[in-house]
Amino acid sequence: MKGKPRHSRPGDSPNGHPRNGGGAERARPRRQSHNGSPSGHGRGVWLYGIHPVLAALANPRRRCFRVVLTNETEMALGPRIDALAQGHPIGLPSAEIASREVLDRLLPKGAVHQGIAIQVDGLDEPSIEDVCRATEVQDRVCVVVLDQVSDPHNVGAVLRSAAAFNAAAVVLPERHSPGATAAMAKAASGALERVPLVRVVNLARALDQLKQAGYWCVGFDAAASVPLNEADLSGKIALVVGAEGEGLRRLTRERCDLMVRIPIARGMESLNVSNAAAIALYELARRG
Description:
Layout (H helix, E strand, L loop, with lengths): L31 E3 L10 E4 L1 H9 L5 E6 L1 H17 L7 E4 L1 H7 L9 E5 L7 H7 L6 E7 L4 H13 L4 E5 L8 H7 L8 E4 L2 H10 L3 E5 L5 E2 L8 E7 L7 H6 L2 E4 L11 H14 L2
Parallel strand pairs: 1-4, 3-4, 6-7, 6-11, 7-8, 9-11, 9-12, 10-12
Antiparallel strand pairs: 2-5, 3-5
Helix pairs in contact: 5-6, 5-9
């Protein structure tokens, strides 16, 4: 395999947010009806869409204030929501029935809510030290590190791929990075509840901490000489991906142990960051 010598690798993935078991069977609660526009009461944020909402309801660490859904969605998902409510350790509110027009007014213009929305508190985000401790005894594990990725849809798509391929975390800088918004949650399709999102003050320092914990930092650059399929990707890997066009910043690049490229057709400069991350995660998973 190409690349420079590996540093020593001293490896339980921070398991995002495990599902909780259900309780004893009981009658479904009576739904409240809403004819007007639901009020947010100034608490938390609204998430929408079937996958993000069900994932939030299943997350024992997520505090939920309100669940609003249409009659049609209640008929389809009511039993599932009730089962999740029975097993939630801190309890879930009774679902409220509202018209599609009410949901349209409640959420951002053009939101594809699929007839359901939930008002929640933000999640507690782990630190890079938490990630290093949680993966300390693992011999083979991966985290994704994002540099200069500011689009919440891209971050959400990366989270979705990270969940699909069992990445331990997604790491990004505090500055110039999107918050855990409804747009990110919708793009993540439930993965925001499953994959720890780690924000760091200094990305270069975070990479140093990962290296000290035995991670091999692999950066991506379209001009790199080593193709991804020929790179050494065994052990603990931090996949370091930059924004399309801007790429990795100098200090980020300097912390990488190896730079690789994804072979693509001539005439195309690069891939979207979420596509590049998905390909890299698949390559790691393919090698077992």
